[in-house]
Amino acid sequence: MKALTLSLALTAGLLLQAPAQADTLLVERVQAEASQSMPARGQTMAQVEAKFGAPQQKHAPVAGPGDRAHNPPITRWDYAGYSVYFEHSHVVDAVAIKATPTEAGPKPVQ
C-alpha cells in the first residue's frame, strides 16, 4: 500500500512539472475572417477590383490537365490579409491568410 501511494505521488509530481500541451483552436482567426469584408462568391474580377482596389499581387491562371470544361483556369489575387480565387473571371472563394507561417489548420479529410 505504501508503494502504491509513493508511486502515485511520484506520477502526480511528474505531471505537475510537465508543461501542458494542447491543440490550439483557430477560433479567433475564424471569427476575424467572418467579420472581415471580403469579395463574395460570384462577383466578377472587375467588381472585385472596383470595390476592393488593385490586389497586391495577381497570379497567372492555373488549369488542370485535359478538358477545360472539367479543369477551368483558377486565378489567385492576393490582398493584405486574404486571397481571392477566381474560376474563369468569377469569385469562387476568398480565404484569410495564415496569421503565422507555423499556423496549422484542420487536417485534410482522408
UniProtKB/TrEMBL annotation:
This is Phosphodiesterase. Keywords: Signal. Residues 1-22 form the signal peptide. It comes from Arenimonas metalli CF5-1. The keyword Signal applies. It comes from the Bacteria.
